[in-house]
Structure formats: C-alpha cells, structure tokens
Amino acid sequence: MAGWTIEQRPTVVEEKQRVGDLEMDLIIGHGHSGVLLTINDRATGMLKMAILESKEAALVQAKAVELLADWKQHLYTITIDNGGRPLPEGVCLPSEAG
After folding, report:
1. Which of 40, 61, 68, 84 has its CA 20 to 30 A from that of 51?
2. Strands of 2-4's sheet, edge to edge?
C-alpha cells in the first residue's frame, strides 16, 4: 500500500471503482478546540472516524492504524490532503506501522 497526496494519486484511484482506495482528512474545530479524523473508501463511501485530542502526528497515526485494522488486507492507497505540505517527519502509513 502507498500513500499519496491528491496530486500524486494513481489514475485508478480517480475512477472510484476499486474498494480499498481511501481518503484521510482531519477536520479541525473552531479555535482548534477539537479534531475529527475521517477515513473513507472512495468506491463505497464506507467511513471510519474518531474524535482526537489533538492533531499531533503520532496521535493521528496511532488512531488511523487502530481504525483501519480490520480493513488492512483490503487496502491499496490512502490519499492524504496535507495542504500541499509533506507529511511530518516520522509519519508512516498504517501498513508500514505493522
């Protein structure tokens, strides 16, 4: 499995036909008072989400791994829109985290 920014993702992901191509987003509350992690499958619309205490990379990564544990064998890609910025040092995708 590979992680992609929106600009880098393979053409097959754009077709929204293959189960296992995911998109991950963080929704930050007003005044940075809360964080919602969403992970959805582009083909089926299936959604995993969790409320987080912060947007700290290690916390987001740990929760993503937890949420995706039962989907792991079906994953192909995870697209992460990070506002055009690279992911923080030390962040890896769920399949790389073991």
Report:
1. 84
2. 2-4, 77-80, 21-28, 35-41, 47-52
